[in-house]
Fold this sequence. Notes:
It is built from 11 helices and 12 strands. By secondary structure, the protein is an alpha+beta fold. It has 3 domains: 18-132, Butyryl-Coa Dehydrogenase, subunit A, domain 1 (Orthogonal Bundle); 138-242, Butyryl-CoA Dehydrogenase, subunit A, domain 2 (Beta Barrel), CATH 2.40.110.10; 245-389, Butyryl-CoA Dehydrogenase, subunit A, domain 3 (Up-down Bundle), CATH 1.20.140.10. The strands form 4 sheets. It has a 4-stranded mixed β-sheet with strand order 3-6-7-10. Strands 4-5-9-8 form a 4-stranded antiparallel β-sheet, with helices on one face. A two-stranded antiparallel sheet has the order 1-2. β4 (157-161) and β5 form a beta hairpin.
Amino acid sequence: MTEAFTRAGTPPLDLLDLDGSLTEEDRQIRSVVGQLVATRVRPHVARWYEIGQAPVRELAVEFGKVGLLGMHLTGYGCAGASAVAYGLACLELEAGDSGVRSLVSVQGSLAMYAIWRYGSEEQKQQWLPRMAAGELIGCFGLTEPDHGSDPASMTTRARRDGTDWVLTGGKMWITNAPVADLAVVWARTDEGVRGFVVPMATPGVTAREIRHKMSLRASSTGEIVLDDVRLPADAQLPAATGLRAPLSCLTEARYGIVWGALGAARDCLHAAIDYATSRMQFGRPIAGFQLTQAKLADMAVELQKGYLLALHLGRLADAGTLRPEQVSVGKLNNVREAIAIARECRTILGANGISGEYPVLRHANNLESVLTYEGTSEIHQLVIGQRLTGLSAFNG
């Protein structure tokens, strides 16, 4: 369910009355996304998770209709919303399921952003309007089977052959890959790391679904194999030179995670409060016991602190001053606290906490993936440590 509103429209978990600091447009966008999640995701997501499959293409079209895909980008059919509004949308999406938010994040903040930021005008016109509408699905090929946190060691190669490029290599753990129409693939060339727009129907491209996942089961994840894939010269993203380009795309995606993780935590806390106020033990609701109230209070405080952090980062982003290490602070804190909240809520639900009839363990399992993708907690600790000390520990 979306968050109920009481006391003149204030959400009951908004202990600090932070809702009043949002603009009317922010609240309207949040409401639209919350209602979409309530009607299109919540009634079905437990089954999607159980069978390990979600209707990704159908969802993409529906999300496109309300402007969710690439919503923080401008032009080319994109909504041009604020960073705060985009964050609120991510929060509502992940309150439904982390996998559903991942669909939107990968489409908009990775694949579309890479083309929008580094592509030619022709590439933008060719791909972005249909991606914004959900007619085309994109994915982002950076992670490799042996190179996750160390993308600088990627082995995927792109070599020139006349005016063409020929790509060889493989990418792993790529969200949307099995259903994607195009991939933004990063490869090493003689001139350094470069990005390429690769239509998935190109000869030599193979996508394989990764099965038996215990997390993000309502998301399509795959491996991409590139076997002498021949691309025209104009497939290269002309402004993407060096590893800084894909890393900037990751910063975009990580920002959405800062907000999204709060949605999963909020949904768990709602479930725990609803359960605790109705579950009778020893002749009274368990919400009336001191230990339960202490757990709920601590979780609500952490949720509010995470929201304040996300809101601050969103306003920095809207001002154009947000730095990558600040996003690392947000992802490190909010995902870490969200997974702690999910686990604590599971204890309040007791045995029912492991049931698919409640969202808590599904969120906890999903957050295990969120904890490590787009940079593990350890990577973000090192980013912050480098900022604090001026020394890089990545090779130490």
